[in-house]
Amino acid sequence: MPIHNADIAAIFDEIADLLEIDEANPFRIRAYRNASRTLQGLGEEAKTLLEQGEDLTKLPGIGKDLAGKIAEIVESGRCLALEKLRKASAPGLTELLKIPGLGPRRVHALYHELDIHTPEQLLRAARDARLRHLAGFGEKSEARILETMATHVQQTTRIKRALAAQYAQALVEYLQQVGGVKQVTVAGSYRRCRETVGDLDILVSAEHSAPVMDHFVAYDEIIEVLAKGHTRATVILRSGLQVDVRVVRQASYGAALYYFTGSKAHNIAIRRRAQQRGLKINEYGVYRKEKQIAGETEVSVFEAVGLPWIAPELRENRGEIEAAEAGTLPQLVGLADLKGDLHAHTRATDGHNTLREMAAAARAHGWSYLAITEHSRRLTMVHGLDEKRLLKQIDEINRLNDELSGIILLKGIEVDILDDGRLDLPDRLLAKLDLVIGAVHSQFHLSRAKQTERILKAMDHPHFTMLAHPSGRLLQEREPYDVDMPRIIRQARQRGCFLEINAQPDRLDLIDTYCQLAKEEGVLLCINSDAHSTGDFDNLAHGIGQARRGWLEKRDVLNTRPLRQLRTLLKGTM
Ligand code: DGT
Ligand code: CA
Ligand code: CA
Predict the structure, then answer these.
(1) Does the beta carbon of 263 sit less than 6 angstroms from any atom of ligand 1?
(2) Whose CA is nearest to atom 21 of ligand 1?
(3) What pLDDT score was predicted for residue 97?
(4) Which atom of ligand 1 is found nearest the CA of 197?
(5) Are 190 and 321 members of one domain?
(6) Which of 117, 134, 155 is the last residue of a domain?
(7) Nearest ligand to the C-alpha of residue 232?
(8) Whose CA is nearest to atom 2 of ligand 1?
(9) How many distinct structural domains can be found in the chain?
(10) Would you place residue 151 in the very low, low, confident or very high pLDDT band (cuts 50, 70, 90)?
(11) How far apart are CA 447 and CA 451, in angstroms?
């Protein structure tokens, strides 16, 4: 049975969750979380590395013990440590963690005080008003839990796109093995680069569908075949992910690709347009009466309804059809447009690589600059920098810049925005830096008015350059905090500062519709990897997807600027 990195990561995450509910040693918990992150970002399958005899302890955050566990999982598909932890706790307990607003501490209280270990029990207790008396809860959080439970079921069945990508790529390669197959493409929300996907919609072009269907349902990660017909099948993978596969002839490939890319709202609007022109449009082609007039390529489908090709990321019926009609579609930003990255960590705090290693990796990506932005002192858990250690890092960067060629390290900080909107380090120190990224890492539940005021105050600070992960959401873990984002965007315009698109696959924050608003307001966005190791630079591809969903062009993105222009823009904020 093939074990993917995503499977191992899921096991480590569950271990970390259970340890956290158990109030185990925080460093032990972090070790599992870091290892999970390393695996999720790893370009190559751990299984392959092991087969090649590679030493896994060379990977960031993987020590001897974890390397052993990875080998165990790859070989046996099992992890004894997890099984032991599961036995010692109630089944379903980690399900509770997926409910937004419930962290390990609260789950611990629910379990030990009220014997609640399933979402159903939680719902019942909230309805009976039993939660409000629990330490750390109250009437407000009880109401919030009732509210989120309503949407919870729907949310947990989706999966992060970056994770789905690992399953998708393996499956695409598998399907390409069949003789006669010309093209294999993942369509649906995946192709539109939504941050989570409900299922995978895979399209295969071949003249004969039977061999493709037979090969597909024999894939050894399938645990259930829900449907199998002549040209389509639906299955569930061991990971729980649902996959739809459809086989079409080359003459219909464009029409099918178009149709199954969606979104549904976009498709419906285009179909109406086709009808107005006396055309019929479906997954097989575009028809006038009975005659197919288009459908081999996507371009031909759009052409038939009088439009230029529209990039998949825009197809949400949010104005793209009108823009296509008017000839004002954006020239979307691409990965190759980026000149550098402005948010990265090193071993000085919770990163895994040295300054020198990070610089070399950034240069290898072809960039001309990389900003080092460690956490500030308030985050003691990750060894946030105090004044003395930041000064020391500034010196190190200066020295390294003298020595290195082809890459410039910029001096920055990811400084905590304190509860009252002040910044976590003194002005005279921030003044020595090239950029100051402000970040909210605490007090997520302030009222909308207070949270907004807090962030606006921080942005007013003379040295504030950029707001990190502006909404604070963690996909499927934490809802965005309640904040007046349009006001923050307007403030950024007035102050001449920037907003981040944090490219970590579980953040992808700023959210697409606000990217669009920021662009309209003339606020530059910066697509940042938030790298904690050299491998994390690959996150930028996810950030680009998010930026494209937000209609951003090269000129809307700060880190497409060459170094000299960038420096001028950064100085404007200091
Ligand atoms: P997901 O899977 O929830 O992340 O989102 P999608 O967009 O991938 O949705 P899915 O998998 O249900 O369907 C794939 C595409 O098929 C969808 O984007 C558009 C097309 N489609 C599905 N149902 C309909 C429909 O009732 N009418 C039209 N016009 N298109 C549909
Ligand atoms: Ca889908
Ligand atoms: Ca589907």
Answers:
(1) yes
(2) 264
(3) 84
(4) 4
(5) yes
(6) 155
(7) 3
(8) 198
(9) 3
(10) low
(11) 6
